[in-house]
């Protein structure tokens, strides 16, 4: 039933009263001045034994800083893929010495699990515990939810990892396959 609750909350959060165009809730917004934002996403197909993860780091002007696209082996569920994207994103930030960041994912259940003060006893509890620990190690990190429409670039990066069997990182310049989505976000700030 948790999937239905997430589905309902996402659809309520992105509903547009007049249906003429995207609302502010469906657009990517830059973080506060002096803060970076890392959008992450996880991909999962039940027919294969691996998932995909991706993330894009941007500054308070919406400019591209860096991105990653990693394949994740032995993924059990869509939630597992989303949690791995958060973990890999935190590892990515730690390696780059980024200490003040807003992280966003389009998986509300993952956000709730990470922000919960109670211990998770599910099969993904150890991963959730690890992610909570990494949040503390990285520094000033806020983990929040964003609708999928505002997470396009991370979604493309996660999808891209299905075609690649290596960890890919980009710094300074984005690859062509995400440029249009980056520009779409950037010019709507």
Automatic annotation (TrEMBL):
Transmembrane segments: none annotated. CDD domains: RNase_H_like. Gene3D superfamilies: Ribonuclease H-like superfamily/Ribonuclease H (3.30.420.10). It comes from the Eukaryota. It holds the Pfam family RVT_3. This is Putative ribonuclease H-like domain-containing protein. Residues 39-160 form the RNase H type-1 domain. GO terms for molecular function: nucleic acid binding; RNA-DNA hybrid ribonuclease activity.
């Amino acid at each position: 039933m948790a999937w239905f609750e997430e589905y309902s909350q996402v659809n309520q959060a992105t509903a547009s009263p007049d249906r003429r165009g995207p609302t502010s809730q469906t657009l990517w917004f830059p973080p506060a001045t002096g803060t970076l934002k890392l959008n992450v996403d996880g991909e999962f197909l039940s027919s294969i034994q691996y998932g995909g993860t991706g993330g894009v780091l941007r500054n308070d002007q919406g400019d591209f800083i860096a991105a990653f696209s990693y394949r994740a082996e032995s993924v059990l569920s869509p939630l597992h893929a989303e949690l791995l994207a958060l973990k890999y994103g935190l590892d990515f930030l730690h390696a780059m010495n980024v200490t003040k960041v807003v992280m966003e994912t389009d998986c509300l259940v993952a956000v709730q699990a990470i922000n919960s003060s109670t211990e998770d006893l599910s099969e993904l509890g150890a991963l959730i515990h690890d992610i909570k620990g990494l949040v503390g190690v990285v520094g000033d990190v806020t983990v929040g939810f964003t609708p999928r429409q505002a997470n396009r670039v991370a979604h493309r990066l996660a999808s891209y990892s299905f075609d690649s069997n290596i960890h890919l990182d980009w710094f300074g310049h984005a690859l062509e396959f995400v440029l249009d989505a980056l520009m779409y976000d950037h010019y709507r700030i």
